[in-house]
Write a structure and sequence with these properties.
The protein is built from five helices and 13 strands. The chain is 17% helix and 26% strand.
């Protein structure tokens, strides 16, 4: 019996024969190069790690934090000049390069109903020196008096926060010291102020999703004394005297707005330029529906017209806090902004 194949059928058979060896060598699964985080396990690690440190007299409490903020307003921090920060290297993605120096910030506390330690709300932060200086938002360390604070690194190590060493409550930025137990930590470099349109990335912990990367661009720079009731609130506890501080002589800090997504838990997260340098820090969100129009005769935006402004601490504010940073302070571009 003779079987005749059409030209179309024959081409299909030849294609299958040619492709089959290629298909056979493709592995069934592909390894994921970037780290895989188990959020539930990390919450457990953070809670028990901080609980083990909570009895130390050296750990920073919510009550002592506000006292030290007020005592360190306007103080700058000198950083070591001979150290090498995290860098991208050859063919190393930005995310993998910077994650070891981005930390989660939280606290533990005891409620009135049991004797167990509970994990407070989490924020973000970043290591700026190998001996344990960490930058985060002022509102991230605003906690009730009995809270005991610490940070967790991406490898699951938990360290106690021991002191506030510099603070700018109006600019929503603080530098705290952690007890590294003699370890040298990976840290980040502070870059120069970016231009509008510069691509930026944020690594933070939005709503408990640890070490999350989002991307966008710088959308604008602006001056504002402080938020008008629509900023991300204190992570735990009520605002105190330091929260109502004002900049001297009516000077308003510069804020940087970006389009990269973030939300509660991202506060204190570093904003990176394409070179992996920190060029800002997550602070707050403001929606257009919450903002009163300058011209009161205009209607407020409708629901479908809402835009979320994502305001970040600028490099200007960060350079003032990190006055000993080896890189030069950015040029004042206020006029062109």
């Amino acid at each position: 019996m003779q079987v005749r194949l059409s030209s179309r059928s024959l081409s299909g058979v030849l294609a299958a024969c040619l492709l089959s060896p290629l298909v056979s060598v493709v592995p069934a699964t592909t390894a994921i190069a970037s780290p895989v985080f188990d959020d539930e396990h990390l919450n457990h690690t953070f809670l028990h790690g901080l609980a083990a440190l909570a009895s130390s007299d050296a750990i920073l409490t919510g009550a002592r934090a506000e006292e030290e903020v007020l005592a360190t307003v306007g103080r700058g921090v000198s950083l070591p000049l001979a150290s090498t920060p995290c860098h991208l290297g050859e063919a190393k993605p930005l995310y993998d390069a910077v994650v070891p120096a981005v930390v989660a910030v939280s606290s533990v506390y005891k409620c009135e109903r049991c004797s167990d330690w509970h994990l407070g709300g989490s924020g973000s932060g970043w290591v700026v020196s190998p001996d344990g200086l960490v930058v985060t938002n002022h509102h991230v360390i605003q906690r009730d008096a009995g809270h005991r604070m610490g940070v967790m690194t991406a490898d699951g190590e938990v360290y106690a926060i021991t002191a506030v060493v510099a603070a700018d409550p109006v600019g929503d930025a603080v530098v705290v010291r952690i007890d590294t137990r003699g370890r040298k930590l990976p840290f980040l470099a502070l870059g120069s102020s970016p231009d509008c349109g510069t691509e930026v990335s944020v690594v933070s912990h939005p709503v408990g999703r640890y070490w999350c990367l989002t991307e966008g661009v710088v959308s604008r720079f602006h001056r504002q004394q402080k938020a008008t009731g629509d900023a991300i609130p204190a992570v735990d506890g009520n605002a105190t005297a330091a929260a109502h501080a004002r900049a001297p002589s009516g000077v308003k800090p510069v804020w940087m707005s970006i389009t990269a997504d973030y939300t509660i838990g991202s506060s204190g997260g570093p904003v990176f330029n394409p070179a992996g340098e920190v060029v800002g820090m997550v602070s707050r969100t403001v929606t257009s529906s919450q903002t009163k129009p300058e011209n009161t005769t205009r209607r407020r935006p409708l629901a479908g017209e809402t835009i979320v402004f994502k305001d970040c601490v600028s490099t200007e504010t960060l350079h003032k806090l990190l006055s000993g940073h080896p890189q030069a302070a950015p040029v004042d571009n206020t006029a062109k902004r």
